[in-house]
Amino acid sequence: MSVLLIEPFYGGSHKQLMDLLQEELQEDCVLCTLPAKKWHWKARTSALYFMQTVPTSSNYRFMPEHKLARLEKVIGVKRNGDAYQSEGLPGQQESRAVMKTIDAHPESGLCELQPGLCTTQHEGLPSPAAAPVQAEAPERTNPCQGEDKQHLTFNLSNILSGLDYQQRPLHIAWPHRWEHDKDPETFFKVLMKLKEQDLPFHVSVLGETFSEIPDIFSEAREVLGSSVLHWGYLPSKDDYFRALCTADVVISTAKHEFFGVAMIEAVHCGCYPLCPKALVYPEIFPAEYLYSTPEQLFKRLQNFCKRPDIVRRHLYKGETAGFSWAALGSKFRSLLAAEPREDL
What we know:
The protein is an alpha/beta fold. It folds into two domains: 3-139 and 327-337, no CATH class; 149-313, Glycogen Phosphorylase B (Rossmann fold), CATH 3.40.50. It has 13 helices and twelve strands. The strands form four sheets. It has a six-stranded parallel sheet with strand order 9-8-7-10-11-12, sandwiched between helices. A two-stranded parallel ribbon has the order 1-2. It has a two-stranded antiparallel sheet with strand order 3-4. Helix 10 (281-284) links the parallel strand 11 (272-276) and strand 12. The longest helix is centred in the first third of the chain and has 15 residues, at 39-53.
């Protein structure tokens, strides 16, 4: 079995899943990716890029005979031994002309390629590669990157070490990408309202950042002031999980979410989850952990700030073990090894 994995948004939880599959499948896995930037643009254009870049192979381009015949007829793909080759795909000549023009300008930041994986480092569609190639993971920015990492890593422990566990203020974690689809505006407005009422709490904002950061982050950093325990992306998984293990509540305000790995990880580390009663969350979390409006979220946090011991004594009533690789690994392997069906 050979498996072709295609990921046009190679970052965060997407990258985590792809890396896990590649590690577990090892030599049977070919991974082709694009950087984790501009999700909507990738959704519209990545298929065109991968169509021209992914090398053909009979090992993973499983198709029923009737679909192969249709493909030959419509776009001129013909079998050549055990592989397939394309002949004049629609628009291919035009796109090659465009790529040639782009490639003439090295300052545009086009692919610096390395063997092993198929990835590019820019937002356009580069000229097709002859074989899978690998680039480094997408560049990430950290608003704290100029500070000493050791200070960032252990600042949390130093602040909390002198306080009795039950006497500490409520510790709120927000472990999501610093982008608008995670709705940081709602999250920070709720926290600012808590601050206005002089309610005690600490917050750790742990998500990954990219080149464009919503303005609300700089505004919130100033308003929240001493309530901030940690502010910025933690590249080390150990540091990240250590921060989650010291938190009491993990919050999602997302407007776009297919699963929510960060929330499950935080719950596994002992956090009490508060999620929108929308998207995928009602399928994963019991009703107790869902809110319908920002006002409801504020009231829950208001109560928790007054009585953090309630959260700290709470035992999560859902289940996270079913999302582990130990539970799902065999299902992934069975799915990826399945023979093609005529109804696909």
